[in-house]
Every structure is written in structure tokens, then in C-alpha cells.
User: Which sequence fits this backbone?
């Protein structure tokens, strides 16, 4: 076979596309346990999406001038008058207000902030320490059979999805979890085991929490 430059580029492009459309692809000989935060009780409620703000960077301030280059008729706001930063104190205050008023939801961090920088590297205009402190607002780590959470505010009906069957999950310093048969029966202090996954629902407290799986 005459393996020329054109064939090489075609093969490489096919491989790259395969990786792109295969988000579950894992480059490891060992299968690791995956834990993710899902909607409270795995349900989709009537939702209010507060978009654009993220870790430190006010995406409106940095994003509008970029969007205006492509859609000038749609982005006429004076972005210079918008604050460049969303302070951590605001995120914490909003989260506490949500918890106190029964607002349930999910807080997501955009990885590439308005094209300014990567959250796992650096963001021009902020120090490394400022970025690290901001990311500490919400932290989840997995060590052996323990999931450790660090939350800046309490969250009722907090729900975790684990891609493994867990027979007796335990939230430390909390009431014992009761098993339910259906995901639709999930509520606080319960868990549901499926064929290949487990859902755990509990009231997440402010500060550190450990879940034994």
C-alpha cells in the first residue's frame, strides 16, 4: 500500500473524530469509579438558568466584544461598563440565599473562561492563588472508597451518580441512608441501586462531607 501524506492525514482525522465523539473513552488499563453530581433527586424541575458568570471572570465583559465581531447587530452593549470580575463573595452569597429559599440546582464551572484562560492553568489578570481559592468553593475528590466534598453552602436533596453498584453507601455524621427501589422514589437520605449505577440523595451541609462507597 502506498501510504502517502494524503492517506496519513485522512487516517489521523478519522482517529481524532473517533476520540471527539467518544466522551467515555478512557486511556487506562484500569476502570476507575466515576462520580458525578446530577439534578436533585435526578429530576428536571421548572428551571431558571443563570448563564455567563463563572469562576472570577465575568463572561459578559470579555465575551461581548468577541461576539460583536460576528453578530454586531445583536451585541451593542457597552461592555466596558460591565464589571470584569464575579467575586467569590457574590457566588457564596447567592448560593446561601438559594439554599435558604429552597432553590435547588447545579453550579457549573466553565473550563475556558470567555477565551481568557483555562481554570486548570491560569487566567491572565488574576493570580494563581486567586484562581485556586475560587476553585476551592466547590471541590470533590475520590480516595479509594471515599468521596470527599467541600461545599461553600448547604444544598438540600444533593444527588450523586456513581457508575458502580454500591450496596451500603454511608454519609458520615448523617442519618443512615434508606434504599428505595426506583429512581423516582429518591428523596433526601435515600439511595437507589441499578444494574450498573447507584444514586445517592442527601442534604449536603456547608463545609466538608465524606461519603463511603
Assistant:
Amino acid at each position: 500500500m502506498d501510504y502517502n501524506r494524503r492517506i496519513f492525514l485522512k487516517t489521523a482525522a478519522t482517529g481524532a473524530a473517533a476520540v471527539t465523539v467518544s466522551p467515555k473513552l478512557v486511556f487506562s488499563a484500569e476502570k476507575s469509579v466515576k462520580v458525578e453530581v446530577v439534578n436533585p433527586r435526578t429530576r428536571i424541575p421548572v428551571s431558571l438558568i443563570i448563564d455567563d458568570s463563572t469562576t472570577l471572570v465575568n463572561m459578559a465583559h470579555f465575551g461581548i466584544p468577541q461576539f460583536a465581531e460576528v453578530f454586531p447587530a445583536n451585541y451593542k452593549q457597552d461592555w466596558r461598563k460591565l464589571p470584569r470580575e464575579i467575586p467569590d463573595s457574590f457566588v457564596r452569597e447567592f448560593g446561601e440565599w438559594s439554599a435558604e429559599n429552597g432553590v435547588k440546582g447545579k453550579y457549573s464551572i466553565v473550563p475556558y473562561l470567555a477565551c481568557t484562560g483555562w481554570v486548570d492553568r491560569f487566567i491572565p489578570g488574576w493570580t494563581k492563588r486567586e484562581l485556586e481559592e475560587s476553585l476551592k468553593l466547590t471541590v470533590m475528590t475520590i480516595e479509594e472508597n471515599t468521596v470527599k466534598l467541600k461545599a461553600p453552602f448547604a444544598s438540600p436533596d444533593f444527588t450523586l451518580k456513581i457508575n458502580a453498584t454500591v450496596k451500603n453507601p454511608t454519609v458520615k455524621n448523617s442519618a443512615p441512608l434508606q434504599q428505595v427501589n426506583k429512581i423516582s422514589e429518591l428523596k433526601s437520605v435515600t439511595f437507589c441501586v441499578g444494574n450498573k449505577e447507584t444514586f445517592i440523595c442527601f442534604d449536603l451541609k456547608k463545609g466538608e462531607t465524606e461519603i463511603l462507597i
Remarks:
- The radius of gyration is 21 Å.
- The longest strand covers residues 155-162.
